[in-house]
Design brief:
By secondary structure, this protein is an alpha/beta fold. The protein folds into two domains: about 10-255, P-loop containing nucleotide triphosphate hydrolases (Rossmann fold); about 260-495, no CATH class. Helix content is about 45%, strand content about 10%. The longest helix is centred in the middle third of the chain and has 21 residues, at about 310-330. The radius of gyration is 30 Å and the shape is elongated. It starts with 7 loop residues before the first helix and ends in a 6-residue tail after the last helix. The model is unreliable at about 475-480 (pLDDT under 50).
């Protein structure tokens, strides 16, 4: 930035032409930069996964149309991240009159101070620059937000100290909206904003100006307004008043990942997995299993659909799973971290707090629901890898009286020794073709996945102490439909026990 113009005179002779800066508003700037990016190809918003064919094209249309827009979606759908990514459509550096609170355009100043400064200093008026990230202002809507917070207010203390009258522009304390001048102003959870405060946004959205406290102070601001909201909020906590909705150019609906592969990509990108230089190997089936937890939960009738299941759930689960595996590797005095299915059960605290339960779920309890969701997710992941696999030999070993205890405190050498006694198990584990499959840790993880999958389908039994043995329940189940049928039977039994007789 050292070679950028530092005075108004230098600015006039630079590439920042007066005509361009005077007439090019922030929405024009975003539109031009977006057109350039579209011509160059590549991702519009790097790091936003799964929206390439759905949400992103709608945002592109809104920006090309110079619309104020709102992102409407459940929690954990990257709404805030998308809004913050809009700064990538702004110029890298933007000149403004030095010292101005609202970053006035040097060629078209709004505030009285800047007008008088330019009239007095002329071409010697000092110029400063604001970066693209600094041109983004965000406010979380809460019921206690006031017009003064958003628009501004007359500051009597400033008036007393400066000797100006209350009606003077020099006594104004600018709110967030004026301070976002020539940038993007975002309001998160818009329905939580009180209706009378939403009215205060009318002028800026339609006429492009704000008025402060009834005094003759008119500021024709240059701002791109964007919002986010949860559909549940329209009825549960508040609503967007109709005149404001009418002024929002585009309503864009976000969504959860459409498939497991997209979910895995998001989780891999967001989860903290670099742990003090420890070598980490997360098996592919475990990535699948962790992501399936979110998909199963979103389909489960015991989970409140209006609240949703955030994408933060599999991210938090992944981090907890890695931490539990890391704890085991520290105990084993190794630097190779390989998570197992047992670590997913250990990560239940990162699941239960993210599930809003319906009545049936409350009756069972969050821990029980979480365990059943994990088990259903294991069944799905197992079907992907061994849906048509012949595992009769492994099941037969248990039916003949075999039993193994996979204690979390047991050493790797002790566990692998026991697993190798199960006929056919290690051969089937080898078919997963995992990286570094010759290591003890990877072999244990693969073998345990097979045992957990058989347990999920009720082909073998397992106690809470992680003792695998033959199951007393006769039917072999190979489909998730049968698994869900058993869950429904359990729910009906709970309802029957809790039914009260009429007096």
């Amino acid at each position: 930035m050292s070679n950028l113009p530092r005075t108004l005179g230098e600015l006039r002779t630079s590439s920042y032409s007066e005509e361009r800066l005077r007439t090019r508003r922030v929405k024009d700037e975003m539109r031009e930069n977006l057109v350039t990016r579209l011509r160059q190809g590549g991702p519009i918003f790097p790091g936003i996964i799964g929206y390439e064919d759905t949400v992103t094209p709608q945002i592109v249309n809104a920006v090309l149309s110079r619309h104020n827009f709102i992102l409407l979606g459940l929690r954990g759908q990257a709404k805030s991240r998308i809004l913050r990514a809009l700064t990538t459509l702004l110029d890298e550096h933007t000149p403004y009159v030095a010292g101005c609170e609202i970053r006035d355009n040097p060629y078209d100043p709004l505030c009285r101070r800047c007008k008088e400064l330019i009239a007095r200093e002329g071409d010697a008026t000092p110029i400063e620059y604001i970066s693209a990230d600094e041109r983004y202002v965000e406010k979380l809507a809460t019921p206690d937000v006031t017009i003064a917070d958003l628009i501004g207010d007359i500051d009597p203390i400033k008036a007393a100290r400066s000797g100006h009258e209350l009606g003077s522009e020099y006594t104004v304390h600018y709110g967030l909206l004026p301070r976002a001048n020539r940038g993007v102003f975002a309001i998160n959870e818009l329905p939580d904003l009180a209706g009378k405060i939403q009215v205060g946004l009318f002028n800026i959205m339609q006429e492009g100006d704000v008025q402060i406290k009834g005094y003759p102070v008119r500021l024709p601001l240059d701002v791109a307004l964007v919002f986010s909201a949860n559909p549940e909020d329209y009825t549960a906590r508040g609503k967007i008043i109709t005149p404001l909705k009418d002024r929002i150019g585009s309503e864009i609906r976000t969504h959860y990942p459409a498939n497991v592969e997209e979910g895995i990509a998001i989780t891999s990108q967001e989860a903290w997995s670099a742990r003090n230089g420890h070598r980490l190997q997360v098996p592919a089936f475990l990535n699948e299993l962790i992501e399936q937890i979110a998909f199963v939960a979103r389909e489960d009738k015991r989970i409140d659909k209006r609240s949703g299941v955030s994408q933060r759930l599999p991210i938090s689960v992944m981090e907890n799973v890695i931490s539990n595996a890391e704890r085991r590797s520290i105990r084993e005095k190794t630097d190779f971290v390989v998570p197992r299915v047992a670590d997913v059960y250990a990560a239940m605290p990162s699941i239960t707090g993210k599930l809003e339960l319906e009545y049936e779920g409350e009756m069972k309890g969050a821990d029980t629901v979480a365990r059943e969701i994990i088990r259903a997710a294991i069944a799905r992941a197992f079907d992907k890898y061994f849906g048509n696999g012949d595992l009769k030999q492994v099941v037969q070993w248990f039916e003949l009286g075999g039993e193994i205890h996979l204690a979390d405190t047991a050493s790797n050498a002790e566990v692998i020794s026991g697993l190798r006694n199960i006929q056919g198990l290690m051969e089937k584990a080898g078919t997963l073709k995992l990286p570094e499959s010759d290591s003890t840790e990877v072999q244990i993880s693969a073998a345990e996945f097979i045992l957990e999958g058989l347990h999920a389908h009720k082909r073998i039994g397992r106690s809470e102490e992680r003792v695998f043995s033959a199951t007393e329940k006769a039917p072999k189940r190979t489909s998730e439909r049968e698994f869900r049928r058993d869950e429904l039977d359990d729910e009906m039994e709970i309802r029957r026990k809790n039914r009260r007789p009429f007096n």
